[in-house]
Write a structure and sequence with these properties.
Number of strands: 22
Radius of gyration: 57 Å
Structural class: alpha+beta
Largest sheet: 2 strands, antiparallel
Distance between the termini: 117 Å
Mean pLDDT: 81
Order of helices and strands: HEEEEHEEEEEEEEEEEEEEEEHHEEHHH
Low-confidence stretches: 66-70, 732-736
Shape: flat
Helix content: 10-25%
């Protein structure tokens, strides 16, 4: 979110467009625009997709190798970025090729876009998040600071809100803060600032929690404890409080109430002045081994170590031995398994099988071919070389840092310093140009050497001209391929002097007369044009003729007639360039009539020589005008130019406001507002009757709605009365029956049965 992100974005854009500038730090090779890549979200460094997948796989294998025997396979280890070491989860291993913004999978190669870009709007959220999204096209590197303009107040909210960039919306008005500090007594005196105010810097006399001591302390920390023990008598009357400077009551005596014996099986209720005795039962607490219990009687203090003898198996599982339970058993057998580097044996005593990573140094030559791998012995490819190399310009003043191994293929930086080499020609100084490698460009200063005629040579310097060398090598036969022509630097002689002589139009090196290179200018036979041939000799002229007339060596006029045509005639003269006037134009002109519906063919001569009235008649098609008047009716005039007349004579029907009365009048009078039709008494009587009918209908509807609501109210009250009666019946208390009433049926039925049998 700061200006440094903008500089990083500029650097990544330069690297993206500069050929060969992007380098994959894993394989130390150039990243091409048609290769699948992956970009780190921490440092935005770009790698080949295949390289980063292999890197993640090897990193997960190395990191997941157990550092201890208990951690093997229990953790989901991450893999780091090769450059910034930003950690990614195993599930975040890249498997597909996306553009920089992550919208398009496998973006197409477009030479007009940034390589590996989709060309769409980025729309990634700015960091730190401000609610806006990046509006640049899909680009490498971090997004620049948010450029949106927002209206925001200062930190203390005292100043008026001002518009600022969203990336720098936090600002200070430099006025005193004035917020109440945590002490509740003083106000913050610092200038307007972000976040919470600092603790109060003032000093005051304050009592401790128990109130025994007073000391000068910072106002920001009023709660403090002294070093004195409370010493107040507890409610038991036998002991005192042993807490250090506390607030509130001391509480009950810790030795009061029921207390357990050391083993916790028996509880005693004793005075606080007596210690709890042992119960005499076995202790039975679990020992440190976690298997056996303490066999001693109830005792105070920790239990002893487990001394029972058990059959123990060593860690590697090859040997067993009977020994005390608290002692570990490790055999002397050395592990022969190969470690994760697949090169060296474990050689650890009594190994459980989860061998630790190899502790030897790798030592393999890295991809840069300059350094060796300093990491521990491992499988797979080594990490990229962490070293950087300085690539300098020819003068050594401009330096760029590149990954080690790329200094032989990277282009040297462009230096803005001027070249300091001495000139190779006869000039005392050379032209100014920037620092470069190789030979300097050819000198372009004027030669200025003195020629034999005394003038100075005006052409560019030719002391170091490249000349093709020919005839220096004879081929041995037709089987030998011709070699490329060789160029050598040599000094060329100065060209002939081209300075003009004042008394002659010829240059200095040529004094012989020849053509002046201007046009001849003699009048041709057409009497309209002159000879455009270069200055030449004219022979066989008539002595009586004018000296400006064209001769046989002059050109013949082959142009068309360019004399002005009559006004309105668009055609050319049918004759070639000729003297005198042009003939009359007899061609037919295709033209549309005034209403633009018919096409007319008229002689150009008639059209150009006609006056305004005649042209009006010639261009008319003699049909009715199809244009519509503002009232909506068709124009009644014959095809004419200009706008149609507004006096429409069409008969239309005019109605009153209630649409009962109607009358036929001329349309133009209605448009002018001269005629109107008002409602009569019958119309007003009909309106009044219609209003009374509507009012009666509304009143009847209102009465019907009142009757319906009254019926619903009566029905609801009836239902409510029925519910109250049922509730009163349920609330009645039943009368308890006597014993004779409960059991009389059980007694009388057998008696009547016996009587019936006897009868």
């Amino acid at each position: 979110g700061d200006a440094s992100e903008l500089e990083r974005t500029r650097q990544y854009m330069n690297d993206a467009f500069q050929s060969g500038a992007m380098t994959c730090l894993i394989c130390i090779a150039s990243v091409k625009r048609n290769q699948a890549v992956w970009s780190c979200c921490g440092c935005f460094c770009i790698f080949h997709l295949v390289c980063i997948q292999k890197w993640a796989k090897d990193s997960l294998f190395l990191v997941s190798s157990p550092l201890t025997d208990d951690d093997f396979g229990k953790k989901d280890h991450p893999w780091p970025c090769p450059k910034c070491r930003f950690e990614y989860k195993r599930s975040e291993t890249p498997s597909r090729y996306y553009c920089y913004c992550g919208k398009v999978e496998n973006p197409t190669v477009d030479p007009w876009l940034v390589p590996h870009s989709c060309g769409q709007i980025c729309e990634r959220e700015f960091k730190p998040s401000c609610g806006h999204r990046c509006l640049l096209l899909c680009h490498p590197g971090p997004c620049p600071p948010c450029p949106k303009m927002v209206t925001t107040s200062c930190h203390c909210k005292k100043a008026k809100p001002v518009p600022r960039r969203c990336s720098a919306k936090a600002w200070s008005c430099r006025l005193p803060c004035g917020r109440t500090l945590l002490c509740g007594q003083h106000a913050c005196e610092n200038p307007c600032h972000a976040g919470d105010c600092q603790p109060c810097p003032r000093v005051s006399k304050q009592r401790c929690i128990c109130g025994r001591q007073t000391a000068e302390r910072l106002c920001a920390s009023p709660q403090w404890q002294c070093d004195q023990v409370c010493g107040k008598c507890l409610p038991c009357g036998n002991h005192t409080c042993e807490q250090v400077c506390h607030a509130g009551p001391c509480g009950d005596c810790p030795r009061s109430g029921k207390r357990s014996c050391p083993c916790g099986k028996t509880k005693f209720t004793l005075p606080c002045t007596e210690d709890v005795p042992t119960c005499g039962d076995s202790c039975d607490k679990i020992l440190e081994c976690g298997i056996h219990k303490c066999s001693q009687r109830c005792h105070r203090g920790p239990c002893e170590i487990c001394r029972q003898e058990v059959e123990k198996q060593c860690r590697c599982g090859k040997h067993t031995k009977r020994m005390p339970c608290h002692k570990p058993y490790l055999c002397e057998t050395k592990c022969t398994k190969i470690r994760d580097c697949q090169k060296h044996q474990c050689r650890r005593k009594c190994c459980s099988g989860n061998c630790p990573p190899c502790d030897q140094v790798c030592g393999r030559t890295l991809g840069c071919r300059n350094h060796k791998c300093p990491s521990g012995c491992h499988r797979g490819s080594c990490n990229p070389c962490p070293e950087t190399v300085d690539v300098k310009c020819n003068c050594g003043k401009t330096v760029i840092k590149v990954p080690c191994g790329r200094e032989r293929t990277i282009k040297p930086p462009k230096c803005k310093q001027l070249c300091s080499r001495p000139p190779t020609c006869h000039h005392p100084t050379q032209e100014k140009h920037y620092c470069h490698f190789g030979r300097c460009p050819p000198c372009r200063q004027p030669c200025q050497k003195t020629l034999t005629c005394g003038h100075l040579c005006p052409v560019s310097c030719h002391d170091q001209a490249l000349v093709k060398q020919t005839g220096s090598h004879q081929s041995a036969g037709p089987w030998e391929q011709p070699s490329e022509p060789a160029f050598i630097q040599t000094a060329l002689p100065c060209p002939p002097c081209e300075v003009p002589i004042p008394v002659s139009p010829l240059p200095c090196h040529s004094a012989n007369p020849y053509s002046c290179k201007r046009f001849c200018g003699r009048l041709l036979d057409c009497q309209n044009h002159t000879c455009m041939k270069e200055c030449h000799h004219v022979t066989k002229l008539n002595t009586n003729a004018d000296g400006k007339k064209a001769g046989p060596e002059c050109l013949e006029c082959e142009e068309e007639c360019t004399k002005p045509r009559p006004a309105g005639c668009p055609h050319r003269c049918v004759l070639p360039c000729h003297p005198g006037d042009c003939p009359s134009c007899l061609q037919m002109v295709k033209i549309k009539c005034h209403c633009k519906l018919s096409v007319l063919y008229i002689e150009c001569l008639k059209l150009t020589h006609a006056d305004l009235k005649e042209k009006e008649l010639l261009i008319s098609c003699r049909n009715q005008c199809p244009k519509e008047l503002p009232c909506g009716h068709r124009c009644k005039e014959i095809c004419h130019s200009g706008s149609c007349p507004l006096n429409c004579s069409q008969k239309v029907k005019l109605r009153c406001l209630c649409k009962r009365l109607k009358k036929e009048v001329q349309c133009s009078k209605i448009q002018e507002g001269q005629v109107s039709l008002e409602c009569d008494a019958l119309c007003k009587e009909m309106k009044r009757k219609a209003y009374e009918i509507k009012e009666a209908e509304a009143k009847a509807a209102l009465e019907e709605e009142k009757r319906r609501q009254q019926a619903e109210l009566e029905a609801f009250e009836n239902r409510l009365k029925g519910r109250r009666k049922n509730k009163r019946k349920k609330d009645e208390v039943e009368v308890e029956q006597s014993s004779w009433q409960k059991y009389k049926n059980l007694i009388m039925l057998p008696v009547f049965g016996v009587a019936v049998v006897m009868v």
